[in-house]
């Protein structure tokens, strides 16, 4: 299988139990997660040699994050150790018309303060088939933005395919700052992944679609995908489309365009949602696996990715631990949910 490198931040996630509000909670459930770490777990779960690159403190909380990745088969040999803290985020899971909430406590985390000397990116990229990063990483700090550029440059020197999930986070930076950093980084990207908000706020492209009202006609994305490919020379552009009927009930599908074929996936009606955090990351991990496994069939690759992310919505925690066989069964039309005996 392929060697897939991801680079970013893994955080400590503290969740109020069930659907409790923050102010009701007397304790929090503890897991680890983060955009690129979630992608690495998905890829390892599909049988790839997934390598996660970051920086974590040497104390027990940092080691807990390393152990969480190792538990699911992720290669952690290039995680630098040092710094003062692990980033934290608090999650309150919504229900019905009440949305979920996230509160970040990540300033000054080890990866936000990391230096170029912490990573030998040419060594890391040697022999790799794929490198993935997201817009969250350069948003963490100016230092992390520089490291992202250095990682991309090393990937290109070593002939590695690069994917980026745009992943705009308004609590981390403004659209103006995002575009000033993200647009120059797009010169290194082969596969661009994002939703309609990401494309607009990170790159300045707005599709003719109103997702909030459920108007997700694929035709509204065709011209924007063409424009993005022409502006940044992407090989492939993909977008997820989420219809939010409520916090507990979403419609979920995706689109992909390689300059020749514009393909729309089947739509999944997800209800009830158990945990939507990491849904986009599970799509990215599924798409990477799909494109590597079915390089001549982008439609099949996309159907795998959408099925993988639909399944993630049924699994608590950041990581998608649905097996390759489970994803393939769902993509093939088996959505009955019957007990497997």
Explain briefly what this protein structure is:
Keywords: Kinase, Transferase. With 341 residues, the protein is α/β, with parallel strands linked by helices.
Descriptive labels:
alpha/beta; single chain; UDP-N-acetylmuramoyl-L-alanine:D-glutamate ligase; 341 residues; 4-stranded mixed sheet
What would you note in describing this structure?
This protein has 341 residues and is α/β, with parallel strands linked by helices. It has one domain: Ribokinase (UDP-N-acetylmuramoyl-L-alanine:D-glutamate ligase). The chain contains 11 helices and 15 strands. Strands 1, 4, 9, 10, 11, 12, 13, 14 and 15 form a 9-stranded mixed sheet that branches. Strand 13 and strand 14 form a beta hairpin. Helix 1 packs across helix 9 (279-293) and helix 9 (279-293) runs antiparallel to helix 10. It is globular.
């Amino acid at each position: 299988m392929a060697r897939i490198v991801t680079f970013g931040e893994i955080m400590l996630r503290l969740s109020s139990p069930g659907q409790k509000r923050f102010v009701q909670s007397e304790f929090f459930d503890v897991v680890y997660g983060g955009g690129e770490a979630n992608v690495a777990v998905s890829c390892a779960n599909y049988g790839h040699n997934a390598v996660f690159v970051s920086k974590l403190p040497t104390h027990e909380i940092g080691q807990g994050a390393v152990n969480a990745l190792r538990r699911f088969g992720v290669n952690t040999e290039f995680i630098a150790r040092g710094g003062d803290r692990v980033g934290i985020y608090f999650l309150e899971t919504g229900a019905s018309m009440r949305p979920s909430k996230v509160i970040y406590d990540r300033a000054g985390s080890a990866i936000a303060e990391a230096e170029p000397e912490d990573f030998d990116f040419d060594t890391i990229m040697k022999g790799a088939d794929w490198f993935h990063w997201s817009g969250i990483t350069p948003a963490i700090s100016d230092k992390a933005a520089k490291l992202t550029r250095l990682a991309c440059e090393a990937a290109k020197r070593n002939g590695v395919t690069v994917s980026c999930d745009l992943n705009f986070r308004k609590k981390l930076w403004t659209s103006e700052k995002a575009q000033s950093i993200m647009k120059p980084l797009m010169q290194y990207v082969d596969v661009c992944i994002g939703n309609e908000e990401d494309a607009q706020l990170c790159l300045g492209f707005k599709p003719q679609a109103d997702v909030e009202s459920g108007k997700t006609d694929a035709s509204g994305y065709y011209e924007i995908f063409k424009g993005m490919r022409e502006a940044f020379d992407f090989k492939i552009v993909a977008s997820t489309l989420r219809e939010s009927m409520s916090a507990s009930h979403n419609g979920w599908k995706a689109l992909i365009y390689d300059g020749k074929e514009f393909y729309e996936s089947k739509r999944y009606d997800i209800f009830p949602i158990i945990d939507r955090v990491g849904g986009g990351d599970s799509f990215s991990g599924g798409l990477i696996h799909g494109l590597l496994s079915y390089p001549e069939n982008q439609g099949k690759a996309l159907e795998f990715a959408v099925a993988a992310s639909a399944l993630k919505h049924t699994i608590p925690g950041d990581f998608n631990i649905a097996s390759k066989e489970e994803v393939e069964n769902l993509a093939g039309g088996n959505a009955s949910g019957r007990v497997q005996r």
